[in-house]
Amino acid sequence: MRLIRNQMPTGLAQLERLRTDSGRGGPILAGREGRDLRISDYTVPGAAGPLRARLYEPAAAPASGPLLVFFHGGGWVLGGIDSHEPVCRFLAARSGVRVLSAEYRLAPEHAFPAQFDDAAAVFRHVCADPSRFGAAPGRIAVGGDSAGGNLAAAVAHASLRTGTARPAWTLLIYPATDVLGDYPSRAAYGKGFVIDTDTWTGPEGLIASLLPHADDPRLSVMRDPDVAGLPPTYIATGGFDPLRDEGEAYAERLRESGVDVKARRFDRLFHGFASFAPVERHCGAALDEIAQELRTAMATEPAQNAPQEPQPAEPAPHEPAAPESAADAAAEQA
């Protein structure tokens, strides 16, 4: 967490330098993870122009199979396909599922809803031309981490409102779901645990340009009045993450509306843990578990692209407080 905090911006003046640093650091963190993947760069249409994208294909992937469209985190102001090389390589290599990492225009240079508009445009394009990416129609999932998880959820919500293609599955890794919500985890871990909430959401904060839109369901998906009919969803949170409670509250909201949802809290971990999966054993064990959920969820083609039947409510499982030897074994297996 100390390493991450040293790389987090404390003001808008630092954004350009930190964007460059995060782009350079991603491939370094990825190391040799996924060295057997086929990796190809693409240009895809956004809402207002072309965007960068990168496809990660497992060597054993069939000519046509499932695909995860992944949006990077970074608080809507940082990140890109280079910064999230560790996450996407890891997911593709461990799940056997193709991953398409896509960029979007960043704030504050591009005002909301540019970020959502780009994410929705990218997903529509992939669904309209799945063969370009080796994707099988009806087997295209959407996912992301942090702000990218927010965008993935918003894309799934938009499919209900607009009647466009619905994701087959949604993967949300420590997602932002309620930009100005009041949750205990924000008070408990809002300083000293990667995200300093004042730095991000204060009057002069990094996402100040987004805050006037905090009630818009395209930004705060918790504020959407109707979530029934969303695709099956997996939500991962970290025990020491300021965004933990809003992610879990969103999971409960979906569950109450009959959505097939699985929530998993990794008690030991913090915001941003997915980026460190190739180099830190607890992070690696957690993201490997998430990759296996992706593998299982996308293993078979759904019979129909229709809303799921209501599921009974169940509490979100927590990571057991395993002894170090068990954690080491899990990491070695990963």
Automatic annotation (TrEMBL):
Pro residues bias locations: 309-320
Hydrolase keyword on record: yes
Keywords on record: Hydrolase
Key word Hydrolase present: yes
Domain (Alpha/beta hydrolase fold-3): residue spans on this chain: 68-274
Coiled-coil segments on the chain, per record: none
Chain spans, region Disordered: 296-334
Compositionally biased residues, Low complexity: 299-308, 322-334
GO molecular function terms noted in the UniProt entry: hydrolase activity
Descriptive protein name: Alpha/beta hydrolase
